[in-house]
């Protein structure tokens, strides 16, 4: 399976929007008048993380937007540290740019951190919230260093095998879920001159002091009122199940689903489980 094969059968386009002055790449699909669903990837990721999810959601009538977040993919990379409020500002600007007063947010890893922060700050903008292996609730020095070093090694060295290893870190079964096309897409992104120049801004949340002031603490999660679905892989290499359970306890009325044989990309690794679950949740949230 390739990215284009995954998208076969659904009308879609790659588009660029001006989100508060930042040129933002998006994969857009689904009926124009459908409820907007915005998909947000993880640290050093890109919108291709959701190619196994877009067709099903578009066919169900949702207007899907998978975006490259601030400083990521082919979106603009302003020269300043990308802390969580900056990501939230960019996401809000994107919602404004597409004319969405409210949207369903689906965030994986860093994307979940950002989506949850927006839901706690501006509940009127968030119709529902999906947190897929969401980050931001802990500051684990070993995990932070693993993210930092694996990313820097892949970005600063033109050895595609280092990009492959960075993707392999995410998956329970990388032989099945990391295609050579996905490796090549990420390798090309990692070696854009502006990506290389700004990778230190992208990795600022792996600095302990910076991370601590951006943590998604229980008192902030308690402010989330949107219907919330938490999805977690039992073999998530960047956070164990108790982290997901603590998130579930902090967000009143949330729902927690654990996927077996799954790492850090549940929407991709277990699309067979995730897609029907997401559609059921979105229908209930509506």
TrEMBL record:
Molecular function per GO: hydrolase activity
A Pfam short name: Abhydrolase_1
Record key words, sorted: Hydrolase
SUPFAM superfamilies: alpha/beta-Hydrolases
Annotated TM spans: none
All residue ranges annotated as the AB hydrolase-1 domain in the record: 35-270
Name of protein: Alpha/beta hydrolase
Source organism of this protein record: Actinomadura violacea
């Amino acid at each position: 399976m390739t990215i284009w094969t995954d998208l076969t059968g659904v009308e879609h386009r790659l588009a660029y929007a001006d989100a508060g002055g930042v040129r933002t790449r998006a994969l857009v699909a689904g009926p124009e008048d459908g409820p907007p669903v915005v998909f947000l990837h993880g640290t050093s990721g890109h919108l291709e993380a959701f190619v196994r999810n877009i067709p099903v959601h578009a066919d169900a009538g949702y207007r899907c937007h998978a975006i490259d977040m601030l400083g990521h993919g082919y979106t603009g990379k302003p020269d300043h540290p990308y802390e969580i409020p900056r990501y939230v500002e960019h996401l809000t600007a994107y919602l404004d740019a597409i004319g969405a007063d409210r949207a369903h947010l689906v965030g994986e890893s860093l994307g979940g951190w950002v989506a949850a922060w927006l839901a706690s700050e501006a509940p009127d903008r968030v119709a529902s919230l999906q947190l897929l292996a969401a980050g931001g609730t802990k500051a684990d020095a070993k995990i932070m260093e693993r993210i930092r070093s694996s990313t820097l090694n892949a970005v600063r060295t033109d050895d595609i095998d280092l990009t492959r290893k960075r993707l392999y870190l995410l998956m329970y079964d990388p032989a099945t879920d990391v295609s050579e096309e996905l490796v090549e897409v990420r390798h090309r992104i990692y070696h854009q001159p502006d990506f290389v120049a700004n990778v230190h801004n992208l990795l600022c949340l792996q600095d302990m002091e910076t991370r601590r002031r951006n943590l998604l603490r229980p008192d902030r999660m308690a402010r989330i009122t949107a219907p919330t679905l938490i999805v977690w892989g039992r073999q998530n290499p960047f956070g164990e199940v108790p982290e997901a359970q603590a998130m579930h306890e902090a967000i009143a009325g949330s729902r927690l689903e654990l996927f077996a044989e799954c790492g850090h990309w549940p929407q991709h690794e277990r699309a067979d489980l995730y897609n029907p679950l997401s559609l059921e949740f979105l229908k209930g949230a509506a």
